[in-house]
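DATA SHEET
Item: assembly model
Revision: 1
Owner: S.N.
Input lines:
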Amino acid sequence: MSVKLAVLGHGVVGSGVVELFYKNKKNIEKRAGKEMDIKYILDLRDFPDSPYSEKFTKNFDDILNDEEVTAVAECMGGIEPAFTFVKSCLEKGKSVSTSNKELVAEKGDILLATAKKYNCNFFFEASVGGAIPIIRPLHKCLAGNDITEVSGILNGTTNFILTKMCRENMEFSKALELAQKLGYAEKDPTADIEGHDACRKICIISSLVFGKHVYPKSVYTKGISDLQLCDLEAAEVLGYSVKVIASVRKLDSGKILPAVMPMLVSEDSIIYGVNNVFNAVLVTGDGIDKVMMYGRGAGKLPTASAVIGDIVNSVQHDNNVVSQMWESAENNDFVAPVSELESRWYFRVPIYCDKVVDESYTTDNGISFVTSKKLSFSEAVKKAEELKALAYIPVME
Amino acid sequence: MSVKLAVLGHGVVGSGVVELFYKNKKNIEKRAGKEMDIKYILDLRDFPDSPYSEKFTKNFDDILNDEEVTAVAECMGGIEPAFTFVKSCLEKGKSVSTSNKELVAEKGDILLATAKKYNCNFFFEASVGGAIPIIRPLHKCLAGNDITEVSGILNGTTNFILTKMCRENMEFSKALELAQKLGYAEKDPTADIEGHDACRKICIISSLVFGKHVYPKSVYTKGISDLQLCDLEAAEVLGYSVKVIASVRKLDSGKILPAVMPMLVSEDSIIYGVNNVFNAVLVTGDGIDKVMMYGRGAGKLPTASAVIGDIVNSVQHDNNVVSQMWESAENNDFVAPVSELESRWYFRVPIYCDKVVDESYTTDNGISFVTSKKLSFSEAVKKAEELKALAYIPVME
């Protein structure tokens, strides 16, 4: 008997899941070792022209109460009704794969505990880095490591905008407009531009790697809307490119420090070459040293690929996967404040500044340089005041 | 009761497995969901000073006949006795994780069939790309894709040598000497330099992705020993870097074309930034577009990390993993000859050549240029004769 699936939501990702599943059904079944079919697609809208129109339902209970359905893809987005639907499915022993980063970042601990209790799986490879294998490598392939840091580019929209600004000297507003025109940015681009999207993703990674739920509100998050083109240009001359880096690091104190902010990336770093809408995640551990995964972090088929990868895993292993688990956290007191972040810093100071600095770059916009010593975030703020700095940005180490 | 492991071989990788396992034992057990311990280490040599000296045995039967041992790490290398030992373990239902690329490239089909028959696992993440998650992402995370091409840098030694040649204008022989001094190249460097090591790895990837065993002898393999420094310099001026690329591509004919050879990599490619001993694998599929995995492709702890990741998986899922499977192949007639390879080509022709070419680079060593049109391998050879070319190298597309 074939495994019956349901897809919740028929927007960009949900319709991609259906499309990719039927395109590669034979191969997918071979990988899963079982015959599979999509029995239901849940959406409140009508899709009379869909070749799968007979599978559509507007009633979630059709899916919940059908015992034949053992694996569900949640591609609706948002917290509700996604949370209620996913939790109910898990309570019936149906494994769920989701692309919904907001849901995982806010409610992951609860849903993982539910999946464990009912011996099924809550998978979310698609919620971070789209097509890129990240979640499974982190808890499976790298299970032998003490992972000390994960950092990367987790938002394609801002990376596209920064690439345009850096490479084509395009102003921020023009680059944003182009991103919207190409469908890379939403009409209301706030979640991308201000770093909230990347923040949710680094919360998911932090929770998975360090074992306790990290909430978005505990994470220092800074976007790109006030970046100046002249700083991007100066950074390039100094051998860096500016990227929005989402990172989490284990500190000597035992606390962890997650953060999202623009940083200077050296041309010697493999992250330097990650441009346009591409995402990348660099993992540091005591066995691996450094490993990077790179690819398309969003989009219909890339995200669908990750959802289907998860479904194949649900079908192969229907018992709960223990390595992908984290605890609830009443408070986030294991999260260090950003003031403890230590790095070298880029400063741009006024031309009339009498500070002598090596390897600086002087333009009409000021003198730009990178400190040779590391400064904590608080020290950098103090130094910026002292120097009357026009801009200051940390360097990714 | 804790899961008992055995490690076959206590050389570089085997001793790394023991070291990393005990360093991160607590975390590893948490990921696996079970207590674990190493009960035996097999080696013919004596290690009286090892903190684990009581675990050593010279008798493989101690391991084979101990029913407590359910997972085995094979880190001996070579075909025999590794093949006999691994096969015997699988026939007793003990899952095996290996770092032995020669074994997998020559005998993978037989060992996978044995594992399937006895419902245990034969894992080999460590056999390709050291620390880098490749095997599991290919058959698990990317299971929803029709994968059409896999290409990358699968040998760190040659990549190190080429980086030194490109960046520091070091002659091949000097760079090889340095690699040997740093422990990146063996005393007899043939397997690395001539491409045999990368060939074994692309055989493993080809077999896994396309489902039939591809033998090393079916794969066109060319190394770097006759590369000229002047071609690397010319390539750089033209916007390329020279890398040994191991690749496999599905052709329109349905055949696959695996090959290992030096290629020009454009500075626009993410592979361009992969330098020194680092490896990287770029996967192309219809869902993901392109995904790359990057990291250390060799070394004690990086390789041990991959072996332990596999062991954790064996412990989590003791039933056979169906997605990681390929068939035996009596012959390799599904492998296309290299003459069918199509790409643009780099040529260096004598200065007295009267050919007019755009974007060429002229030095005392000749005129270097890259064709704007794709040529098949056979066409390129013909053109090289026609032009009396001093060198010709394909471009990675």
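QC remark: Chain A has a mean pLDDT of 95.
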